[in-house]
Amino acid sequence: MRVFAALAVLMASPIAVPAQAQKQAEVQPKFSTPAKAAQVLEVNVADRAPPPPITDKENLWLLDLSTGGRVTIWLRPDVAPKMVERIKTLTRRHFYDGLTFHRVIDGFMAQGGDPKGDGTGGSDLPNVPAEFNYLPHVRGSVAAARADDPNSANSQFYIVFQPRFAL
Fold this sequence. Notes:
- The protein has helices at about 35-40, 80-90; strands at about 5, 60-65, 70-75, 100-105, 110, 140-145, 155-160.
- It is α+β, with helices and mostly antiparallel strands.
- It has a four-stranded antiparallel β-sheet with strand order 4-5-7-6, with no helix packed on it.
- A hairpin with a 4-residue loop joins strand 2 (about 60-65) and strand 3.
- It starts with a strand and ends in a 7-residue tail after the last strand.
């Protein structure tokens, strides 16, 4: 599926992406106690920046699909400021225009943002340092794709179709 235009990463509306048959092992949540799981979702935690309003158009990333559909992604500079800035920079450069979701695993995720279309490409900008955060990977979550090196995020991202708490 080709992304025609990207305008303006964490709540996406459901998307219809062609399935590719690949099996994924079920992943169990890694929370050691229910109290730790509840703390992840707690809003008022000291030293935690508040999320931007979901109506803030500066933090909504719109992906127009070749099927005529649109994916709206709520960018979260409060949890990944460097990656959000990278997405905005690349979008303004029209980097994502015409790129495909090059990796789609039914029941797991769709990955895009690679100009080579095979999962090995990125932008001409340096990689973004890791910005791991407290948010769980629930349906519709978007995150930076990276290689084995935690500081290898660049332009690629993925959208999860079902909860994957081990990510």
